[in-house]
Amino acid sequence: MLFEFDSDQRLWQKTVREVTAKECAPTLIRSIVDTGADPSPLWRTYIDLGWTELTDPDTTVELAIVLEELGRATDPTPYLATMTQFAPLAPGFDDAGRSGAAIYDGVSVRRDGDGWILDGTASNVLDGDRADRLAVATGAGVFVVPAEQAVVTRSPVFDPVLHLAEVSFHGVRVDGDRRVDVDVEPARHVALTGLALTVVGACQRILDMVLEHVRERRQFGVPIGSFQAVKHKAVDMHVAIERARALAYYAALTIAENDPRRRVAASMAKAAAGECQSVVFRNGIQLFGAMGFTWENDLQFALKRAKAGEHLLGGAAEHRALIAEEYRATHL
């Protein structure tokens, strides 16, 4: 495994960053929150640029770079759910122009002639309310269902740009050709790694804003960034981000190589991202002072995206427990 970006990947990172700075600027996020602007043109931009075609394991690192940059920009589209949750569960149903969401539990299935019947309700489905298709994991396989066959209700969430939904199936019949025999666990590794990268990107955005603020904010005639206590908090944020970033890309590499360590690596990445956002959230708010609590300050969007990423698909404590169980199973 290579643990540094090669020249092509560095160019790719630069390109993605330039695109997000232009197309997913803070003004767009603010307009979506304040006036209900439509993010669909941005989603179409991703499709036109080919970003929704990064579904092959060989492109996992390139996808990871996109996910980190979109986390940094507080992406308002269904890209994360489509690429890291739906796509790994639904190979063979790739369609670069359509969005998707994944349901991992809460839905049961039973045979009905040459088809299947789905029943049940899933909560906190990422982008379940605006996906074109749903990949539903059950004990009998994964079923790819058109979203209009489900009853979907968007759930209120503190991140105003994030979409979570309750998705219900009431005797929905699905033809046998919509069933995919896929292992759900490796698909979850991609989902966990994608969330970890999103959190890392959001945390990097918080640190960037904090550093800009402490360079400009002055007290006693000097920038507050010159105070030792402020420096220590900023360094703590930087160290936490670098640790979480390293583990997230390590997880991406294990997925790209189909390395057996991918299970632990994905949990390590998610746990580190959760621990990172805790440090960055706390220090970021404190270093911004009262300004960080105002609605007019865009810091809130990165803070909320980072915090939401911690709670989706299990928090840091849950994944630390999984890592401990794996260690005991292999070393005792």
UniProtKB/TrEMBL annotation:
The keyword Cell division does not apply. Keywords: FAD, Flavoprotein, Oxidoreductase. This is Acyl-CoA dehydrogenase. The keyword Repressor does not apply. It holds the Pfam family Acyl-CoA_dh_1. Its cofactor is FAD. InterPro entries: Acyl-CoA_Oxase/DH_mid-dom_sf (IPR046373), AcylCo_DH-like_C (IPR036250), AcylCo_DH/oxidase_C (IPR009075), AcylCoA_DH/ox_N_sf (IPR037069), AcylCoA_DH/oxidase_NM_dom_sf (IPR009100). Residues 195-326 form the Acyl-CoA dehydrogenase/oxidase C-terminal domain. Belongs to the acyl-CoA dehydrogenase family.
